[in-house]
Amino acid sequence: MNVLFLSLGRYWTIKENEGYTDLLREFIRHGDKVYILSPTERREGNKTQLIEEENSVILKVKTGNIQKTNIVEKGISTVLIETQFLNAIKKYFSNIHFTLILYPTPPITFVKVVEYVKKRDGAKTYLLLKDIFPQNAVDLGMISKKGLKGILYRYFRNKERKLYEISDGIGCMSPANVKYILDHNPEVESAKVEVCPNVIEIKDKSISQDLSKEVRLKYGLPLNKKIFVYGGNLGRPQGINFLIRCVESQKENDDVFFFIVGDGTEYEKLEEYYKSGNQKNFMLMKRLPKADYDTVVAACDVGLIFLDYRFTIPNFPSRLLGYLQAKLPVLACTDINSDIGKVITEGGFGWWCKSDSIENFNNVIGEILQTDTTILGEKAYQYLRDNYTTERGYDIIQQWLKRMYR
């Protein structure tokens, strides 16, 4: 069958090792052909183009700037992308008949695109729900349900409801996500909402002790301290103010070291602290090539996850899977609504604390220092193999598709 995948991800090759491309290659391995619509933002200076490889086609659609930009430009570009994607499908995929449409959130503004192809081809539609917008923006104070900003909220909320309505299936990251969607959207049929977690092609990315020592020396990381690593987006959702307070609270602890590598809208805030703090057990790095990043993460001891304490929606960050591949136990500092902490603690491969309590954080750090993190790292990798494989993601969607055609 032909599978259409709509995303804001910046894909240039199906070979990329990333959750969605990993899952899409699983479809290809089973004989399907995959068509991907992916933006190329204005800042990149590219025209709309087709890339064909290995039973897949990537259509790079020229759009406005969506990622790593201000909220106004992001909002305008996000609204316009729906029409840009729709026009691209009509021009480049007019003769392709799609059986299945997959689309993750963000964004929620693919409604007309999904609706058009669904009606044209009689395709089944499956939403991979990775983001609950606009409520997440309300939680962080970026938009409001009242006043002038309330107009924007109502616009996006109507889009969200419509997206749920036209989706034949909705795959959520965790049980808490399923519950949230059903509790806050009573018009959504419970039968079409299920858990379809983040998945990844399983690769053992752990490294030997000798290589770990070599990598630590290369990057100026200590050999005799427990290294806590955070890698990924540094934006409002991560609660950077609390992250800074956590790092600062441990500045006199000679047994720990914090290594943060990433980028995002709040990076400058973290950089300002880093440059002025003169903290000896903290290092900040903006970015690394993917292969280097994977190796340096594997040279550390504990992976960190941060989520702003104000969230009322149950986020489930995909960076968890990268830590598990490197055989790292995980410390998640989150709001009380996310169930990622529950998954980590009940899975026996890490710790959880509320992301508004420095005392709680410091107590957990003390506990970690008394723990053999290598043993927990092995548990982490086994949990990955048991729960987050591309085969599992593919099977969940296939079983759902079979139910659709009964």
Put simply, the count of helices is 15
Q: Provide the structure class.
A: alpha/beta
Radius of gyration: 21 Å
Tell me the strand percentage band: 15-25%
Low-confidence parts, pLDDT < 50 over ≥5 residues?
none
Tally of strands: 14
Q: Give a quick account of the main beta sheet: strands, pairing sense, barrel closure.
A: 8 strands, mixed
Morphology call: globular
Average pLDDT confidence is 92
Q: Your description of this structure?
A:
It contains 15 helices and 14 strands. It has helices at 19-29, 71-92, 111-121, 135-139, 147-166, 175-184, 209-219, 240-249, 267-277, 290-298, 319-325, 340-346, 358-369, 373-387, 390-404, and strands at 2-6, 33-41, 49-53, 56-63, 100-105, 124-129, 169-172, 193-195, 226-233, 256-263, 282-285, 302-306, 330-334, 350-354. Helix 2 (71-92) runs parallel beside helix 3 (111-121), helix 8 packs parallel to helix 9 and helix 11 (319-325) crosses helix 14 (373-387). The mean pLDDT is 92.
